[in-house]
Amino acid sequence: MYRALLVCNAAFPLEPARLPRLNGPTRDGLAMWSALTDPDTGLFAPENVEVLFDADKDEISRTTERFFGGCSADDVLLFYYSGHGKKGRTNVHLCARNTALHELKSTSFSGEDLTEMMDSSPARSRIVILDCCHSGAFKGETSTVTPRMLDGNGKGRFVITASGATEPARDAEEQGSPSPFTRALVEALREASPRSPHATSVAVRDVYIHALEIIPEGVPKPQSSLKGVGDEIIAKRPTPLADGAGAANSPGRPEAQAEQASLLSKTLSQRFPGIIPAGPQADGPSLGDRRPWRMALVSSLLVGLFSWLAWRAWINDPFRYDDFSSYEDNESFFQVCGLAALLLAAVCTGESFTSEASWLRRALQVVRAALGLAFGCLWLVSAVAVHLSYWEQTMLQSTMGFVFFAWIARRLHDAMFLAGTVVSLLGAFTSPEDLGFDKFDGLPVVQWVICAAMLWLWFRRATDWVLGAVSALTLLPAVMSYAIHGALPAVALYGAGLALVSAGLGDGTRPAQGVPSLASRTLLTLLGAFADAVQRPLRIVDRRNT
Prior knowledge:
The chain has about 550 residues and is an alpha/beta fold. It contains 19 helices and eleven strands. The longest helix is centred in the last third of the chain and has 28 residues. The protein is elongated, with a radius of gyration of 27 Å. The relative contact order is 0.09.
């Protein structure tokens, strides 16, 4: 299995002067992801390429340790870093978001740490690509790759760096462009020629030589080193066709996908690529698809909360639940819901601490899917046998319905956002007694229209900020109904809130937006702005003193 970890750090708020913000890393991550997962030339499945954007030292260290440790003996692992690099006494230090140069060793991810994790990995081959200053200092002196070293199958360690041990690397000239080294590397991954005219695979050496040939003048020349036996295959090439046709019209190419899209979607993709991406950016799984346990954990906490509130309401006034009298012990229903929520929370927590390739992660995913079906059964029981006489029970039923809808759509993209949209749409049809709209005026119609827009944007794989903005817009009809009629359509409001949280936790976060999620990016932006505001008076004082 081919797996990759891409670490791209552009912002370093603790050192704004000595570690200025970089233009390239964000685009570098997108370009590398697209090249590695290209359906025509890439060997990496989209779900096996993890991207970290603007991560701190602890997050980089934990993720890298899981990456190298949670693999099998047949795996090929690729570690890529784009950001600032600082040369230490014996190795390079990869700077993190919280790097402070006066505490470089403890706040950066060092080459020694990376080497130790690589040495302990059972993977067949480990490929390291560093796009940062002084990257040639990784593992000391670099050695030239010769054909004699490349006989046989790849097995060992392969390193490509953007510069030598004492050289700076070149950043992108403008925001939104890849660095010269990554641009050459991406082109090599897609276009480097195999050694044999009839070969269908490209090795690390082929990619390095192609990148070395096309790197612009005045840019430091990439370096390479090898420790192991043979060379490793890193990309593929289409099988040569006699007539040269077919490849250009392959249905997997972005051009063919664009031709199959509707005229409206195609126009939006061209004019507003940040709203509806096209090609491999749209086809890749979102962060929510790869980490559904995040929203599942939130759902489990909500089910547990409303189970406890509904149980308390039943204890205080059990006679209100006269339609639930077929059960000998009404209390047991709420207890079962609470226990199921507790188990789901434990499973989601376990998923957060396991690597994507481990057998334990797969086992926990099976248990989480079974719990989704169990919540569907509980939701059906509550819908048939339980009269919605209390708001607590209404919210409990809505949350279990959300988990069940997400289980039904688990094979689709952005399932949690879709489930929240469905709950919000059903809330527009709910009666006032069951916390729906108090009167059938224009507000329910507005709710239907916005929910339909949410479904269309979900179908077109819109970006996370668009999904979040439309979800926030869905809150308005419910708020206006409360302001006009004095009654809050809680189910529609609750479903829109679930969709909004799902978008914030990763649904719609595609490679074009990078990782972390929309909520994390927003928080990091606010923290960065706060840090700049705090440091600005100090910089003014320093300039006056000098």
